Amino acid sequence: MDSSQGSTLSTNVTGLVDSSSVHRDVCHLGSMPVYVKELIAGGVAGALAKTAVAPLERVKILWQTRTEGFHSLGVRQSVNKLLKHEGFLGLYKGNGASIIRIIPYAALHFMTYEQYKCWILDNCPSLGSGPFIDLLAGSAAGGTSALCTYPLDLARTKLAYEVVDVRGSFKDGMKSFHPRPAYNGLKDVLTSVYKEGGVRALYRGVGPTLTGILPYAGLKFYMYEELKTHVPEEHQKSIVMRLACGALAGLFGQTLTYPLDVVKRQMQVGNPQSSSIGNTSFRNTFDGLTTIVRNQGWRQLFAGISINYIRIVPSAAISFTTYDMMKAWLCIPPRQKSQSVSAA
């Protein structure tokens, strides 16, 4: 089959699928508000992306928080050690809390991004309608979703940080391993943290989170939309193209803001009095950065970035691609008014 025939067949199949999808949407989803569809699309995208990379996320947190017995290991060694002490399910420890968080987080993130972008386009026409709008809307959406779901992020970190030897093997003699977990699930974490320090304790580490999420979320959406504008029109609906643009966008944004994520993780696992790891005390984000450099070395600011590169590529790619595909399936109209190829 030559290339023209292949292209024609692909177009026909796509048209058939799109026609079927539209029919189902008219039957079941036609009366659903657009913002509800955006919440659904964002939630599904976030849940799939987070679950796909959960084992890598667990290892990254152990490295960032300098958990004894892990911070000097490689990815494969860390995974093997978790399998040895906690079994296969140990690779997904904290993922339940992560999913409970990521569904509302991603849903709010994508939905508010669309809402903010629409508001900017309607009220600030002088700014134009290019990817710069995605930068502003993405930053505002990132801050909104992070604030709304932050306690769940803190709980996820605390659950993933603790390594419990459920198989009764302490041959390595690592003091950080406990015979019983300190927390019995998400509810226990939130209740315990609240009793220790109230609402303020539930938001420990939110400073570096907001400092990092505003540029990261903005840059991620900006890069994704900007990259898509350089893709030939005939390839703009390609899944491979969306995967590539999403991966590059996530990689770029994460690199610039990664040290702030390290500060956040160390603040999250510290106690209410000292917010400490290794006898350090972080009064704020800047103090956290300088204290880590002074006491743990500048390399600690990038602890786990290698695994983060491995993680962020499939995570961002799956997230953006799933969101675009869900928007097409749910028949969500594009908010962009001009040249941006937001979504099919």
From TrEMBL:
GO cellular component, one term: mitochondrial inner membrane
Claim: ATP-binding is one of the keywords in the record: no
Database matches in Pfam families: Mito_carr (PF00153)
First and last residues of every Solcar repeat: 33-119, 129-230, 237-329
InterPro entries from the UniProt entry: GDC-like, MCP, MCP_dom_sf, MCP_transmembrane
SUPFAM superfamilies: Mitochondrial carrier
Membrane topology: Multi-pass membrane protein
Gene3D superfamilies for the chain: Mitochondrial carrier domain
Compartments it resides in: Mitochondrion inner membrane
One of the GO biological process terms: transmembrane transport
Family named by the database record: Belongs to the mitochondrial carrier (TC 2.A.29) family.
Name by which UniProt lists this protein: Mitochondrial carrier protein
